[in-house]
Amino acid sequence: MSSPALIALSVAWLSPAAFAAGVQAPASREPLPAREVERPILVPKGWTDLAATAQLQGRRGNRQWAENLAIRRGLLPNHEVGISLSFTGGTEVRPSLGWRWSLFRREPPSTELAVEASWSDPGEVVAGLAFRRQIGGLRLTARVAGVQDYSEATLSGRGSLEALLQAGLLVFAATPEVALDGAEVSSDLQLRGAIQWTRGFDTAVLFGVPLVGEDNRRTIGVRVGGRY
What we know:
Blueprint: H1 3-20, E1 48-59, E2 62-75, E3 79-88, E4 92-106, E5 111-120, E6 124-135, E7 138-149, E8 154-167, E9 170-181, E10 184-198, E11 201-212, E12 219-227
Antiparallel strand pairs: 1-2, 1-12, 2-3, 3-4, 4-5, 5-6, 6-7, 7-8, 8-9, 9-10, 10-11, 11-12
């Protein structure tokens, strides 16, 4: 599926349900904060988060499109499950399953510690911790994780620290990421500028710049997200 077609389909798919989510949630659901900066790590119980992303990856002369469709669902008060499909170069498809468990959560201001785990084909398992703290219009999210790649019998680690600012409808996030694979260290900087149109619908522009190492992950893309 081409990237323009994917984005057009995503907007048509997400918008009606997502805009409808701007009304008050049913009593059977946990509350979903109206502003992104106030939201917890997990999707609240009873809510579904949908996201479609299309990015152009690589350096000049060696670029390809990569797309991702992801669904996350809040289950019980402190659990979330998710599934995603990643498409690279129009042919390679990589499914992924994820789970999160909130160990501690306090509001306001939003403070949370959670366990995160995921499995991706053909055999990558990731497990780690995430900590989030909101300070007014600023939100900080730190993540550390171990990565076991059973297809290549390797063990590595990764970490990140996201700083997110929100002013009205505008959201800006910067996330430096570091990966450690044996004696090799690589890092990159992920940037996101978004407009949160309603509580249930947002659009964003994405940029990724490699900082250290030979990692060829220079990216530019767009993201459409919705919650209902």
